[in-house]
Amino acid sequence: MNDNNEYKEAENLPVDEKKSSLNELLEWLEAIAIAIMVVLLVFTFVLRQVMVVGNSMNPTLYDGERLIMTHLFYTPKQGDIVVANCVGENKLNKSIIKRVIATEGQTIDIDFETGEVTVDGEVLEEDYINALTTTGDNQGYSYPLTVPEGCVFVMGDNRNHSTDSRYSVVGFINVDDISGKAVFRISPIGKFGFIE
């Protein structure tokens, strides 16, 4: 009788191994499917990839660099690099990447002779800019000016080669038109890392 049981166990062994292998494969496929779904959800609701176009953010960001931005529960702050939709009548009608210089209620002043930018009476320490701010558009703006509610004032780090809030085709950016904050550079590989 013992010999019979041993024979049945030996007979069932390959079937059990097949079931075990199939179960293991199904578990791997399930894990991969879940991982793909998580990545898709993260990139849909938390992070997005964007590409820098142009030289207006030199020396911080360069043309062709790829960035990751976040937009979940984001509120713009002074100094943040943001991606914004500049759309509307007499606007650029494209997305731009710029630095937030002033937020709602703050007063900004630009001395185009000295190149100094002042927010709420304090000269900004701008070690990130390419050159002092000596150009701007006088169409409709008289400095100092106060940023309206729900808006921000943005400028490129390459101040004299940037179309930004100093120009009427951009103007104040509505907070609702900000897609998110640029937080991480993914290319080129040599610059891979967080954006300061």
Structure description:
This protein is α+β, with helices and mostly antiparallel strands and 196 residues long. 22% of the residues lie in helices and 30% in strands. Strands 1, 2, 3, 4, 9, 10, 11 and 12 form an eight-stranded antiparallel sheet that branches. A four-stranded antiparallel sheet has the order 7-6-5-8, with no helix packed on it. A hairpin with a 7-residue loop joins β3 (81-86) and β4 (94-103). The N and C termini lie far apart (77 Å).
Provide tags for this entry.
eight-stranded antiparallel beta sheet, 196 residues, 1 helix, alpha+beta
Give me the count of strands: 12
- Specify the number of helices: 1
**Shape, please?**
elongated
Low-confidence stretches at least 5 residues in length (pLDDT < 50)?
A: none
- What class would the helix/strand composition place it in? alpha+beta
Largest sheet: 8 strands, antiparallel
What string gives the helices and strands in order? HEEEEEEEEEEEE
Helix content: 10-25%
Radius of gyration: 27 Å
Give the overall average pLDDT.
85
The termini sit apart by 77 Å
Our estimate of the beta-strand percent is 25-35%
Give the topology, please.
Layout: H1 2-45, E1 47-51, E2 66-70, E3 81-86, E4 94-103, E5 107-111, E6 116-119, E7 122-123, E8 145-146, E9 151-155, E10 173-174, E11 178-187, E12 193-194
Provide a short characterization of the protein structure.
With 196 residues, this protein is of the alpha+beta class. The chain is built from one helix and twelve strands; from the N terminus they run H-E-E-E-E-E-E-E-E-E-E-E-E. 22% of the residues lie in helices and 30% in strands.
